[in-house]
Model the fold of this input.
Amino acid sequence: MCSLKKLRMLDCVIILIFYDHEGKEEVKVHPTVNLYTFELSCRLFISIDDPLHISKLAHHFDVFLKGVIHFPINIPGTRFYRASKAADAIKEELRLISRRRRAALDKKMASPTQDLLSHLLVTSDASGKFLSETEIVDNILLLLFASHDTTTSVVTCVMKYLAELPEVYQTVLRGRVVLF
Done:
């Protein structure tokens, strides 16, 4: 179940991203939705909302996406090599975020329920064992990756159909005003 607060976050993020495109004759939807999806995942999974921080992570993530499914030839200059280096950079950043969050949780300056990262840091399994820092970082990267293509594809298709069906777009727009 999605809370009203999270729905408002979704709405806010998409408005900010598409605001730059208002009045333009043509919008490249897929790259725009790529950024939207990544920003939304960062906000929901690790509570990052600083555009510069997201942009830095997004650059590494883009390199990672372009090479992660290539032949695993780990030689400098190959897409796989660049993807591996980008994954390392993302993991290092996620480790730093995780350490800061753990410290904030210990000092009661962060909520254990604020996002997925906090949940992973404070929740143990049935035997009382907590995830290691490496396991948490790997889980967050995996979820960033898994949520990316599926969500990007769906949102891109929805936007395509809304552009092709202006009467449906107007109905959706009226519904959005009523909800928020």
